[in-house]
Amino acid sequence: MTSKGISSSNFRSSIHAEKTGTIKSSYVAAGLLVSQDEQNFLRWTRSAVGEAKATFASAELYEQGKLAGGFNLAWNGQPMWLRLERRADRVFLWIGDDGTQWRRHTSLRMPFLQDLKVGVFALNSTKTEFSATVSDFYLLGAAAI
């Protein structure tokens, strides 16, 4: 994972996730990670399941090492842009197909500490080598949003 430290409670971050592979079995993902520590984090990803031939956006919120919330949003298999924005104890999840026009999908309560790490990551649960393509990562602190 590539991460940047955050010292402000409010921030905005974005990424373009183009490839999460053409794996024919199991689960692969790439996207944004907001982390307090290894037990408390949020993943907002472009994900794929080979058996179902499905591509989707996925949000997973972990608190104290346990899944505390999340959802999947069906996608058309095309590249996607993911954005998240933290305001106080809520994180707003955005999605787009061109990096300029965004649709706010939902928000989740994220009761983490003020100081967090924000970065990109990839996940591969297969035995096949996996390569994810991500670009356009940026991070705006509270003063810029």
The strand count comes to 11
| Number of DSSP helical runs | 0
Topology as H/E string?
Answer: EEEEEEEEEEE
Structural class: mainly beta
CATH topology: Jelly Rolls
Shape: globular
- Order of strands across the widest beta sheet? 1-10-3-4-5-6
Number of domains: 1
Level-2 CATH architecture: Sandwich
Q: In this structure, how is the largest beta sheet organized?
A: 6 strands, antiparallel
Could you tell me the strand content as a percent range?
Answer: over 45%
- Terminal-residue CA separation: 24 Å
Overall mean pLDDT: 80
Radius of gyration: 14 Å
Main CATH class: Mainly Beta
Helical residues, percent: under 10%
What features would you describe in this structure?
It is a single chain. The chain has strands spanning 2-6, 11-19, 27-37, 40-49, 54-63, 66-75, 80-87, 90-96, 103-109, 116-124, 133-141. It is an all-beta fold and 145 residues long. A 6-stranded antiparallel β-sheet has the order 1-10-3-4-5-6, with no helix packed on it. The protein has a 5-stranded antiparallel β-sheet with strand order 9-8-7-2-11, with no helix packed on it. The chain is globular and about 40 Å long. It starts with a strand and ends with a strand. The model has no long low-confidence stretch (mean pLDDT 80).
What are the key terms here?
mainly beta; 145 residues; single chain; six-stranded antiparallel beta sheet; five-stranded antiparallel beta sheet; Jelly Rolls
Would you kindly provide a brief summary of this structure?
This protein is mainly beta. The chain contains no helices and eleven strands.
